[in-house]
Specification:
The protein is an alpha+beta fold and 246 residues long. It contains seven helices and twelve strands.
């Protein structure tokens, strides 16, 4: 089931995506989610997009990495499914209400994207704990993944007093919000920070009447993404159509 007006928007998206298709290439790589299949990124690098154009790419399931717009075209694999929320329709379940309540001591700040020493230190701890075999540094994540001129980007910071607990990298516009990346203090996992972050972004969207919240990819059975599936109703992009999952 698609929302009212989605058909018109998706037709427009096909127009801009089709117009820019000649600038895209296929880039093979290891699967970023640890699956055995060889990944293939369908990607292009661009300058500034207006909010409507960026929103149309998101509506087609594309993601952002720096100034690179991409989607997955992996042979024999279609496990990466784009997922989004309509914030005004979302209803938290009992566990999500519990997470929200136990984190009432956490302060939330919205600020410009900042490659600060504090942010880099927290991101490096997160990467070293979650991806110990990885070779990427916090600096390379910021310079190659987060920092962009292609869309309006900001960060949402979570603090307990002076302690930085987590940072969400977010793209935003009046009609959509795109969750790019989230990292947090590994010692604060008991707070369910991933769930807290989505609840907070959803709250921001509701407060500012933002229609759509894009949460990236969801992979069925992937432990690190299972929490996304608990946000309902949500929509999955299946065979080119956003379908509601209640």
């Amino acid at each position: 089931m698609t929302g009212q007006g989605d058909g018109h928007k998706e037709n427009a998206a096909r127009g801009i995506v089709g117009d820019l298709e000649r600038f895209f290439i296929h880039a093979p790589a290891e699967c970023p989610y640890g699956l055995a299949q060889r990944a293939v990124y369908h990607q292009g690098i661009f300058g500034r997009f207006d909010d409507e154009s960026m929103g149309e790419f998101l509506a087609r399931g594309y993601r952002r990495n720096g100034n690179c717009i991409y989607t997955m075209r992996c042979p024999g694999c279609a496990l990466c499914v784009p997922i989004r929320l309509r914030p005004k329709q979302f209803h938290p379940n009992r566990n999500q209400r519990r997470v929200w309540k136990k984190n009432q001591d956490v302060a939330v700040e919205i600020a410009p994207l900042t490659m600060s020493r504090e942010n880099l230190s927290l991101l490096q701890r997160f990467l070293s704990t979650r991806f110990p075999a990885g070779s990427s540094s916090a600096e390379s994540y910021y310079s190659g993944f987060f920092i962009t001129s292609i869309s309006r980007c900001f960060e949402v910071r979570y603090r307990l007093g002076e302690q930085l607990l987590g940072v969400a990298i977010v793209d935003g516009a009046p009609s959509w919000m795109n969750a790019v990346y989230f990292f947090f203090d590994p010692d604060q996992g008991w707070r369910s920070p991933g769930t807290l972050n989505i609840l907070t972004l959803n709250h921001i969207c509701q407060r500012h009447k933002i229609e759509l919240l894009y949460l990236g990819y969801w992979i069925d059975g992937h432990a690190g993404m299972s929490y996304k599936n608990a946000f309902r109703p949500h929509e999955l992009l299946l065979d080119g159509v956003w379908r509601e999952q209640k």
